[in-house]
Amino acid sequence: MTGRYLAVYGKTGPGRGFGELDRLVTEGPYSCMRHPMHFFLAWLPLAVALLLASPGAVLVALLEAALVLALAVTLDERESIARFGDEYLAYRRRVPAFNPSPHCLAKALGPRPPKHSREPRR
Question: Where is the composition biased (Basic residues) (predicted)?
């Protein structure tokens, strides 16, 4: 669902592929967490490890989650600052990288956004 928010709100015109965002997305789960997609993807291996009930797999999954979250902040933040500049720096001051609060998780797991943004494009 977070990808849908990027597709709907991150592009000011048609013809841009995924990852070719030209607008900073701050709607939906991005209003309370800068990296919701990375947050959820980092924990997927832990879910699998718990299903396997293997202590070794759980340990590896926890280490993997920490590494993915650290890389998300390091690499994605650098790219976002280069792409959006001061706008992203202000957003970074307001919104944490990861937010496991129930309110924020509800936004991330809630209804999908519309197929097209209702707000005027810049």
Answer: 113-122
Question: What letter would DSSP give residue 118?
Answer: S
Report phi then psi at 71, rounded to 5: -65, -35
Ramachandran class of 88: left when φ > 0, alpha when ψ lies in -120 to 50, beta otherwise: alpha
Q: Evaluate whether 76 touches 24 at the Cβ level (below 8 Å).
A: no
Note the residue count of the chain.
122
The ranges assigned to domains in the chain are 2-109
**C-alpha to C-alpha distance for 27 and 10, rounded to whole angstroms:** 10
Left (φ > 0), alpha (ψ -120 to 50) or beta: where does 79 sit? alpha
Q: What is the pLDDT of residues 26-85, one digit of tens each?
A: 888 999 999 888 888 888 888 888 888 888 888 988 898 888 888 888 888 899 999 999
Buried b (16+ CB within 10 A) or exposed e, 62-91: eebbeebbeebbeeebeebeeebeeebeeb
Instruction: Give pLDDT, residue 113.
Output: 75
C-beta of residue 28 within 8 angstroms of C-beta of residue 107: yes
